[in-house]
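From the shared-data thread, chain only:
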Amino acid sequence: MRLYEYEGKKLFSEFKIPIPKGEVVSSASEAVTAAKAVGGPVVLKSQVLTGGRGKAGGIKVVENPNDVKATAEQLFNLKIKGYKVEKVLVEPKLNIAKEIYFGVTIDRLNYKLVVIVSGAGGMDIEEVAAKSPEKIHKKLYDIEEPMYGFDAIELSKKCGLDSEQTKQAAPILQGLFRLFKKYDAKLAEINPLVVTADGKLIAADSRVSLDDDAVFRHPELATMGIEKRHEEGEMTPREQQAHEWEIPYLDLEGNIGMFPGGAGFGIMGNDFIHYYGGTPANFMDSGGGPSPERIAKMLVLLDENPNVKAIFGARFGGISRCDDFAKGVIMFLKDHGLSKPMVMRMTGNMWQEGVRLFEEARKENPKMFERVEAHGIETPIEEISRRAVELAKMAEGK
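Structure, as tokens:
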């Protein structure tokens, strides 16, 4: 569960990590008021739960107070990776002399916590590690092991700080470590930790991701306005709707709507679609033994997605029943209607009954099934996957 920058900085303050004086605003007029309170040149920072804000034009330095309103309006009209900017953080422009990196995360190979520091802050740490690995310094910790002051001093020195700067940096690193452990974080990162021209250290940015399965352990977060949300980004409208319907669903960037019978079958279907040259528009899981009503709702999410050009459905009946699958599809066709071509296959528990239900419904209303191709066990899943890719290409005129 990723936090907004301003939320991460709230947690920083709790652990005495110095942050810029700033204010979060929701309109251009509020930005003007906040900038006056800050005084001098300011930085307007879009608050979105995704990376790449700077490259997308989501961070602006404003030297002239008269330009704050127009710049803020520009940001509030911006979309970054599809996410609309609804909040902006107004902070003073820092006089930067040096930028370093502090981070704490999990080393899954060694089942330990790992503290990472670098004198090359302000850059993508993965890029630094790839191009200049000698600039990355790490120390592993057992989960119950504390970070002592001498450890923090040793790591801070490796970032190229002088003795006075090291005195400031060490407690910041210890604070970040304690924050990580207290709030069951998966990542706690300061990038950059700025050394200003007058020698002060300030956390200019924050990136904090919490384990969403452990959020219930921290009711104090709610009092800070931090609520449980999507893992790495804001939910799309369809993801929000699926969440309300308790359907595991994730939007992807392709054009083939994936309508599987379970997560494992869904992953396999995605692999088949990629193999035949297609791209899935989503990942979705029906869960074990879904009702016809749940099946119908799953199809609504796909049919109303403008990116979907064709729908691929695959049901392997085990705990779930193929006749319930067929009933859900028929319910959807009667109540909602289908605007995209759909090809599907059923096998396993009650597949013959499912095929029979489709045949009877087609006889009753042939028009309702004009865009539907329903198959049983006699048609290999590979052919269904190939056909879905073909239908999507035809819909796009390729």
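The mean pLDDT is 92.
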